[in-house]
Amino acid sequence: MKKQITITVNGEAHTAEVEPRLLLVHFIRENISLTGTHIGCDTSSCGACTILLNGKSVKSCTILAIQADGKEVSTVEGLAPGAELHAIQEGFKENHGLHCGFCTPGMMMRAVELLEKNPNPTEEEIRWGISGNLCRCTGYNNIVKAIQYAGAKMRGDELPSTEPEFIQ
Amino acid sequence: MIKCKTSKAIGGVGHSIKRKEDARFIKGKGNYVDDIKLPGMLYMDIVRSPYAYAKIKNINTEAALAVPGVIAVVTGKDLEKYNLHWMPTLMSDTQMVLPTDTVMYQSQEVAAVIATDRYTARDGKEAVIVEYEPMKPLMDPHKALDEDAPLLRPDKEGKTDNHIWHWEAGDREKTEKVFSEADVVVKEQMHIPRIHVASIETCGCVADYDKVDNHLTMYMTTQAPHAIRTVIALVAGHVGLTEEKVRVISPDIGGGFGGKVPVYPGYVIAIAVSFLVGKPVKWIEDRSENLQADSFARDYHITAEMAATKEGKILATRFKVLADHGYTDASANPSKFPTGLFSIGTGSYDYDTAFMEADAVYTNKPPGGVAYRCSFRVTEAVHAIERMTDRLALEIGKDPAQLRFDNFIKKEQFPWKSPTGWEYDSGDYHAGLKLAMDAINYNDLRLEQAEKRKKGELMGIGISTFTEIVGAGPSKDFDILGIKMFDSAEIRVHPTGKAIARFGTKSQGQGHETTYAQIIAEELGIPAEHIQIEEGDTDTAPYGLGTYASRSTPTAGAAAAMAARKLRDKARKIAAHLLEVSEDDLEWEPGKFSVKGAPEKSKTIQEIVFAAYTNHPQGMEAGFEATHYYDPPNLTFPSGAYICVVDIDNETFEVKIRRFIAIDDCGNIINPMIVQGQVHGGLTQGLAPAMYEELIYDEAGNILNGTMMDYLVPTAVESPNWETGHTVTPSPHHPIGAKGVGESPTVGAPPAIANAIVDALSIYGITHMEIPITPYKIWKKLKDMGVLDK
Fold first, then answer.
1. CA nearest A40: which of B713, B546, B268, B105?
2. Which of B172, B353, B680, B724 has the smallest number of Cβ neighbours within 10 A?
3. pTM of this prediction?
């Protein structure tokens, strides 16, 4: 018993007949082949599947595709066109905010909403703000730096140094 | 800290150049195994056992096969027809692919359902009805050798108990003598708990067998694609899958940490099904399956003892291990090392007497014994030696930093022969600890602690000064299933002076596409940005044993430097020909050869390479490429000095890490930014088992925290702001003096944290806490000791 839905993803409308049980993350990854959004768990714990639904960050494994009918979805592929980089993407690259890259799209989508709500967050606000997204590689130091960098860039402030700091 | 020999434009060793691989990852264009979609691809899901130990009475597949879209249900009996129901483990034990009669742990694979899509495969899985006859499982390894313990592996001929192997190192009698005569002996029981790597990407594959060409392409989450190809050919050669007919592709990998070294049953079933139906088959496990059934790490029960003089000179150590391997020994160790490199556990200290022994047993738990970002059981060993060093300091009332200074192997004693036979290549332990202590104002912290203690506040300072052992390994001792643990690099420079280099290793986030390019840039002067790095495709890359155990830089990184040096030798010959001088008259600086005394007469590497294709000397082979297989002469021995400061709430016993300083010595540093990133990540994976992670089973064999809801991977909130630095003591035998770093922090951090917490609680008479140290465990211990009345 399929249902017809239309979801606008990164500005483009996609209409499909889907089973009511289809998860939004599978719609994104398989129906429309945007594989930048990842799946890292089955309990909505890891946040690798985070996307923006009508501008709000959600874990796309936690809602059904039919719940997104008529709504706007933004994924990592929609952050910037072509080879251009969104401030958050630049932040992650310049600050070594990723290793394996698997949590990165979800982490960046979460950070985008975080910075929209709170353009100049403290380190503690960033850490709590991304606490629904797990990273197993980086130890989070540089993800925090990446988000601070993106915040500065989005505010038009002077960019912080991206050189690694060491105890001398 | 680092002096670069090349310009920033060349980007050789020592430059923090930004990572080349990042572009695709930040744009969502990575290519992980679940992103692969092939025409006609089928999906596989796996039925798993709810029991830890049970007879399978019957498997009814009728309802599953009636689900529209379900193609097949595969059981152990089906695989038995092809003799594929068992497979060998890396440690030459045997593991079921699918059981024919008995399940040995909860969540073990029981049957596989193949369907046209993911959801239908799950429907089919739900419809398979399995009748079990549960038996009482053996969960406590301490009871594995009891007379009334069930014999878990009657399938193994001649096996009469659950003992797997006994191992020992060092000198038992000498150690007994030193212990019997020593002023001071300290002893603790410790359990290094069973944990799981939990890389954010789980394991999976797409097996694509082409019946027309009789060719298998296997896309899989593997850290060692070449070894996998060889294993497939050895196991399935008899059905026509000989080695040239098998291509293993390891695409982008979402974290490995050792969990993607083993061959899991799901991979084998997917290959078998693809072989039988002639269509590609995708299998992607979910997180709960990953935590419950994929290889665990650690699970060593250690009795640790240290003997010393009353002044605190360490005289000897003795470790006795009981290793819980689950129902088969599926550890990922070099063949001759059942306990991996546990014998590094004599640590960073100058004494000549030690004895270590280990016994491994079977239980009704999942198999494993993989890394968790640790090279071959080094974490277990380091936890024991570093805890006992603090234990000794507490016993004799000496500052644990001073005790370490008094016992360190001195810089001039290297190369140093350890009591268990290792030859440490280099180190400067005093310098590392001094730098860490200065950075954190150690003496002030001790004064502050004394003040806080007067006020009843709990503050602790913990030190860990560890020695790692990585870079496996020299071929005389190190092999996996007989294949020697060398690694390889192949460099091909195109006529315009741009290059591609291929390796037998496989990055899972370590940044090889950048650091390998930097090594070649260092040696040849070709800018790193113009050197493309490829790994993970057995059809194109030279043979290698893969990436784990912090071995990529020590082995394949060395191979890159050696291959580049072969090319530089060729470049010198071509330059001499072009400049019409003798080779001896040429001087090299990064990127060009010039004539001694006439620097205006020179040829750049790009001009030389172009000539290799357009104007090479008569008699010389044209082209510009080289391959090197590097067999390391020794392992490398990175070290570190870590200091952790904790504050503990004296009502809730919540532990807050106030500061954590990590000084690592990994020899020469290729890319400081990437090394620092590795240290940050490794520290959080050291924090995890110290305070949060443990796979817990009840007596009935149920895993109590088999999902990410309750297996506590640290978030950005638990993880503190790590502070890092380095001392640099190059490896004397590695071509560029590098040692490897990825795992050091995971090895070194747990005892620093545990020592800090025990230090805080030592005012109550506590001498040891078992990791993970939770608020509950602290409360319980104090309650049991009668310190608390509530």
1. B713
2. B172
3. 0.98
